[in-house]
Design a protein that fits this description.
Radius of gyration: 20 Å
Helix content: 25-40%
Shape: globular
Bound molecules: succinic acid
CATH class of the largest domain: Alpha Beta
Largest sheet: 8 strands, mixed
Distance between the termini: 32 Å
Number of strands: 16
Strand content: 15-25%
Number of helices: 10
CATH superfamily of the largest domain: L-asparaginase, N-terminal domain
CATH architecture of the largest domain: 3-Layer(aba) Sandwich
CATH topology of the largest domain: Rossmann fold
């Protein structure tokens, strides 16, 4: 029987109430595990309550704390794998942060639920069982997400629906990493080549804001973010990620103040590429490539926290390298 650690962080999977009116993160980790007797037959559990939060309230400091706890657990020879329960709302951010901050020697499985534990047809119990199965079988696969029978890569998930149980999906350009049918784990291919952590960052992470473009959006928020201390801005731009003319001067001021600027798109698929917008590249902005705006923010925060801080060309390479 594998020995698994459960790190609970809150979320709807630990929610109590009806399907439409509930509070996330109120049931503790032990209650969650004891409510699903099958979990005790699948693994020996070391249970820890890391946080008890709705994931909208998680912060970058929580990513670093979680990464540090996972590192410590992975150094313990008594632990074979780790399951993290989490809210779905910012799961994609925590998953990417852990993917960047940890190597892939072990297996860390994030799981979640769209329906609270006390609702009819709660999806959390099966997700937990399937996460345990994957964590026990996934050594060498690094950080994964398991939900609704899918195994998803941590750098490629998106939440696509506000309430459907299959809300967590692979990004449109990526396939699922595998599936779980009942308790049978099927990976779509062999484990990736071993790799170390891609970034190492210390708290506090620098401020990086996301600015959402829309028809006629004014530029004054750009200056406001810089005045408030942002070291990076992710621009969630229209279409294929070109900067509106009305934003160019304010962005040039931000750039001159040393702020890193990343062009992402508010469109859900297709990415933003350096060769699409030569003027914007010449103005010093960086194409997010595959990264969504929220992923680009995670990557930029962690990169700007690294010592030494990467130069623009290194940031360009980091974005081009995701997925990695
Ligand atoms: C949360 O993200 O904590 C609440 C929503 C969810 O888990 O689905």
């Amino acid at each position: 029987m594998p020995r698994l650690a459960l790190l609970a962080t809150g979320g709807t999977i630990a929610g109590s109430g009806s399907q439409t009116a509930y509070r996330a993160g109120v049931l503790d980790a032990r209650t969650l595990v004891e409510a699903v007797p099958r979990l005790g037959e699948l693994a020996q559990w070391q249970i820890e309550q890391a946080f008890a939060l709705d994931s909208r309230d998680l912060t970058p400091a929580h990513w670093l704390e979680l990464a540090a706890r996972v590192r410590a657990l992975q150094a313990d020879p008594a632990i074979d794998g780790i399951v993290i329960t989490h809210g779905t709302d910012t799961l994609e951010e925590t998953a990417l942060a852990l993917h960047l901050l940890l190597g892939n020697a072990g297996c860390v499985v994030l799981t979640a639920a769209m329906r609270p534990a006390t609702s009819a047809s709660a999806d959390g119990p099966l997700n937990l069982i399937q996460a345990a199965c994957v964590a026990g079988a996934g050594a060498g696969r690094g950080v994964l997400v398991v939900a609704d029978g899918r195994i998803l890569a941590a750098d490629a998930i998106v939440k696509t629906h506000t309430h459907a149980v299959d809300a967590l999906q692979p990004r449109p350009d990526r396939a699922a990493t595998g599936s779980v049918l009942g308790e049978a784990v099927h990976f779509g291919g062999p484990a990736p080549a071993p790799r170390a952590a891609l970034l190492r960052a210390d708290a506090p992470l620098p401020r990086v804001d996301i600015l959402y473009a829309s028809a006629g959006a004014p530029d004054d928020l750009i200056d406001a973010c810089v005045r408030a201390g942002a070291r990076g801005l992710v621009l969630a731009l229209t279409g294929h990620g070109s900067v509106p003319a009305a934003w160019r001067e304010a962005l040039a001021r931000a750039r001159a103040a040393g702020v890193s600027l990343v062009r992402a798109s508010r469109v859900g698929a297709g990415g933003v590429w350096p060769d699409c917008n030569e003027d914007d590249e010449a103005a010093g902005t960086i194409a997010a490539c595959h990264a969504t705006p929220q992923q680009a923010r995670v990557l930029l925060m962690l990169a700007l926290a690294a010592r030494p801080v990467p130069a623009r060309n290194d940031l360009v390479a980091l974005f081009a390298g995701l997925p990695c």
